[in-house]
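Ligand: aspartic acid. Inputs:
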Amino acid sequence: MSTPLVVMKFGGSSVAGAERIKRVARRIARERTAGSNLVVIVSAMGDTTDELLALAAAITDDPDPRELDVLLATGEHQSATLVSMALHSLGVAAISLTGPQAGITTDGTYGKARIAGIDPRRVNAELAAGKVVIVAGFQGMSTKGVAELEATATASDVHAAEITTLGRGGSDTTAVALAAQLRADRCQIFTDVKGIYTADPRIAPDARQLSVIGYEEMMELAHQGAQVMQVRAVELGWVNGVTIEVLSSFEDAPGTLIKEDALVEQRNKVRGLAHDRNVAKITLVGVPDRPGVANHVFGPLADAGVIVDMIVQNVGHGGSTDISFTIPRVELAKAKRLLDPLVRELGFVDMTTDSSVAKVSIVGAGIQNAPGYAARMFGTLAEAGINIEMISTSEIRITTIIAEDRVEEAVRALHAAFSLEQPEAVEAAAAG
Ligand code: ASP
Ligand code: MG
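Predicted complex:
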């Protein structure tokens, strides 16, 4: 039997400081001694990425995207080298590689690049040489540089080989992509929580850890604010059939498996709640009710990369209508800058913004097969006296926009209303 290959990813809190790095190294050493080949992906230490962003913001309010990506990538270089050194001092052969050195190529979009391909030769060579390979997460090299550089590179190709980062939380994507490419036997995401919970346990004290969750449910939860895994990483796992294990780097306890959920047909419950405070609502008042107006509003936002989430257009009255929509709160200033000129150009009455709203969602594959979830959700919020400002749904999710200062209350009330603290019948049966 060939040696199993395990991909292990450690998030920022797991490598925050020398002591934690040494602890992570001991965990890696233990796994190595047990006989696996290891590829380890690390995030930047603690809040390093935020600190680097703040530093850049202190220099200029319009940092060059190329320079910013090179800067941000250094956070992961630090942690990768330090984990490698910690392994050396335990007598474990190891080498750190940057994303580009690990053969990761991207589409070249600064700040949110997508992985275009992985050339695994260097990683495989280091594994074959008996080393644990530590890869700096969250980064790669824009494609032109690598394949085409070889014999035929021109000066402009050389300039096109640029370090690009994969978007916040992107080390998860690095890990899952490497696991898929290398056909790893396991893909483990080590984090500061024990796994995926029915709700944020800091808010809902009786939140329960799930042993298994399907890709689609996990994507919805992550998309709606559950912070544990990056959405794109889950998507990549889904597409490539990589089972992802989310577990604590601080204790030895079983985590949560993200995989094709065989029991999905039998589940008839809401599986989890997610909430998100990074939301702002924009309302355009008195928008002329004629063809092309929505396009005029949302076109520039899309071009600027502002992700519009929920959109509600009221029934028109007297030739005009109101349009409300939500965007990430961190993009509010940018969105206002883009929309301000339109107020005059298109003849709106007014534009109002509200950054004190938040999203609360219920997610579960069972939602699509059974009626009554929406009624119970809205009824629960009504009983708590919480006003719903907007609603959106997918097949397996219902999302409401409410006032931010009622979020915790809403999460607790919904958790109780859907009895999420109780194991599902199919799980109880499976457990015997
Ligand atoms: N360090 C990056 C971030 O904070 C990437 C990651 O943590 O996965 O977003
Ligand atoms: Mg992180």
